[in-house]
Amino acid sequence: MNNRTFTMIKPDATRNGHTGGILEMINKAGFRIVAMKMTHLSAQKAGEFYAVHKERPFYGELVQFMSSGPITAAILEKDNAVEDFRKLIGATNPAEAAEGTIRKKYATSIGENAVHGSDSNDNALIEGDFFFSKLEQF
Ligand code: CMP
Fold first, then answer.
1. 116 is a catalytic site residue
2. The model's pTM
3. Which CATH number characterizes residue 64's domain?
4. Residue 34 pLDDT > 70
5. Which member of 12, 31, 38, 128 lies 3.0 to 4.6 Å from 75 by CB, making a disulfide possible if both were Cys?
């Protein structure tokens, strides 16, 4: 399936009151929300979600940050969803993010970068299934 991607609105954006603004940008860009929930990841769950980065020097910081407050997880549908969503969110480092992107508008640093977006169709499925049962994906 190449028409779905997975996103999280991260704890920094949640704390700063940007959940609504980010969802509006997502909708305006033509994505349909087919699953969504607000939740607070434990350090263990955040570590599992980002297990692929386990060997990276920033892993501990990433897990600590991602479990520091509530997040909103969602599955989004649109043609070419993974690639188009990565364009909409912009570069991982907000200093390099293009004008008009979510990270340009809302992210503060490479660690606290407001949103996550899946990097492949395979990961979109894995990440969506991490948060949502099949009964919760519409
Ligand atoms: P995300 O797209 O959620 O996927 C992995 C995350 O690791 C990334 O966003 C960043 O938030 C984080 N990350 C990547 N590089 C660094 C870094 N150099 N320092 C801290 N966090 C990083």
1. yes
2. 0.96
3. 3.30.70.141
4. yes
5. 128
